[in-house]
Write a structure and sequence with these properties.
- With 493 residues, this protein is an all-alpha fold.
- Among the domains are: 1-143, no CATH class; 391-493, Alpha Horseshoe (Serine Threonine Protein Phosphatase 5, Tetratricopeptide repeat), CATH 1.25.40.
- The chain has 27 helices and no strands.
- The relative contact order is 0.04.
């Protein structure tokens, strides 16, 4: 706590520059005439020529030469240039301190420049110089809530949460009245770090009797509970929010966080109850929540609850997008609920979402997996009519299924479509085609298509050749000779 109590020595302390900084072998004038390239991570930044010159001096000059070299440039350190240079030096705090002192000799720093300095020192965990800067800011009359917000963030990022809270507690001693913006900023800084929402709640419970929380306060906590998956705490916080600030469509982020926590916690029935209440208050969440909730339920393979939330969503007038439709179609197909998958495909256009290749291929794959031969055949033609061709993997699986279910004509139809429309790669489908034909003892056709496949330089697997050999050899000497001829051509190719 001692570091946070006001110190009469109100000036920005200067930390000695690190040893080993190379001295410039050029005079300041020469240096500005032959500037070096900015570091790679700064090359794409829009840096003014004066800021670039000052920055190059600061990173090249020795500690003994730097102030003289800066002065020799005759560049006036106006606030805009000071801000640019400090941003460039964000990871070089010793050089930034040197520059800041030098620039402050010519004119007083603007509040923005001071805040950049405080932020830079805090992020580099130079907390003593940071407080020296804050004390100087108090003397200059430029301290504000924004300054303390930066300090909250630096302390919390460093895992020093107690000091962040102490900083809030001493704001008044520095002449800055803590308000709800400061409260929410500290809550947010704490909750940004992993598994710290309970710590934020401790501060919230203590301060809420002095500074009344607003909807943002509760939103921050609810988003923290969402990140941690704490359903019980989320319910308690949400209940208090409703009592303190009531209902409003403007609190949508809070509602999204709370409901998403429930869905993640497998409390979808509870979610639907809250949704009904929210509907009555005209406070239903937006598409963001429903999209997130459906994604969660897709991962859980929970199509029943996903459909329930879907009906609430469309019933409230929200129009799902293509991504959401594909997520639902994929979930239904994975659960082999092909009839409902078709229903979603058919209704998409009424909500302005038009099916794409993924929509069609998921359903086609499901039809193949469930051996629904006639529907798969009809759907194949629908796909190509709508110019959404099946993937090469689905084509291979379809060819295999059509042969297994005694529909060789449809298998050939798929193969010929692949050839005509260059559905690549062809290897898997070609092998399935040959295996299927041989199983049906259509050896003349097998021979003709195999020769075409070899002429096309498509690889025929060794395992496929073994199956063809078995099929040909059991048909007698003539078929035996036919296979041997094909095998020689296969080996030579």
């Amino acid at each position: 706590m001692e570091a946070l109590v006001e110190n009469p020595r109100a000036r920005l302390s200067v930390v000695p520059l690190k040893q080993g900084v190379p001295s410039s072998s050029q005079t300041p004038g020469q240096e500005s005439q032959q500037p070096q390239q900015l570091p790679t991570h700064l090359e794409n930044q829009d840096v003014s020529p004066p800021a670039k010159i000052l920055y190059e001096i600061l990173i090249k000059a020795s500690p003994q030469e730097v102030e003289a070299a800066l002065t020799a440039t005759r560049i006036k350190p106006i606030p805009e240039i000071v801000g640019e240079v400090l941003k460039l030096l964000h990871e070089s705090p010793q050089a930034a301190i040197k520059f800041f002192r030098w620039a402050g000799i010519a004119q007083k720093h603007a509040a923005h420049s001071w805040n950049l300095m405080v932020d830079m020192l805090g992020k580099n965990r130079m907390f003593e110089p940071m407080w020296d800067a804050i004390r100087s800011m108090k003397q200059e009359g430029v301290l504000s809530v924004a300054t303390f917000v930066l300090v909250f963030g630096s302390y919390c990022a460093a895992g020093r949460f107690n000091e962040a809270v102490m900083t809030f507690d001493v704001m008044e001693k520095y002449g800055v009245q803590p308000d709800i913006v400061a409260v929410n900023s500290l809550l947010s800084a704490i909750c940004r770090e992993d598994k710290q929402t309970s710590r934020a709640l401790e501060f919230f419970e203590r301060i809420k009797t002095k500074i009344a929380p607003d909807a943002d306060s509760f939103t921050i906590l609810l988003e923290g509970w969402q990140k941690e998956g704490n359903v019980a705490k989320a319910k308690t916080t949400f209940g208090e929010m409703v009592i303190r600030v009531g209902w409003s469509p403007q609190y949508r982020d809070a509602y999204d966080a709370f409901l998403t926590t429930l869905v993640n916690g497998s409390q979808v029935d509870e979610t639907t109850k809250f949704l009904q209440v929210m509907k009555g208050k005209n406070c239903l969440p937006g598409l963001k929540f429903f999209s997130s909730a459906i994604d969660i339920l897709v991962k859980k393979k929970d199509s029943a609850h996903a459909a329930l939330l879907w009906d609430i969503m469309v019933g409230s007038g929200l129009a799902p997008n293509l991504i959401m439709y594909n997520a639902m179609i994929g979930l239904l197909c994975n659960n082999n609920d092909i009839d409902n998958a078709f229903r979603f495909l058919d209704e998409m256009v009424f909500y302005g979402a038009f099916p794409d290749s993924l929509s069609y291929n998921m359903i086609f794959q499901c039809l193949i997996k469930n051996k629904r031969v006639r529907e798969a055949g009809r759907f194949f033609f629908e796909m190509i009519k709508n110019e959404w061709p099946p993937t090469h993997t689905n084509c291979a699986a379809a060819i295999s299924m059509f042969y297994d279910r005694d529909d060789p004509e449809m298998a050939i139809e798929v193969w010929e479509y692949m050839i005509k429309n260059c559905i690549q790669p062809l290897e898997e489908s070609a092998n399935e085609l040959l295996i299927g034909l041989s199983k049906m003892d259509r050896l003349t056709e097998t021979k003709r298509i195999m020769e075409t496949i070899l002429d096309m330089r498509i690889n025929i697997h060794e395992s496929t050749m073994e199956k063809l050999k078995t099929a040909f050899y059991r048909k007698g000497k003539s078929a035996h000779d036919t296979y041997d001829s094909l095998e020689r051509k296969w080996k030579s190719s």
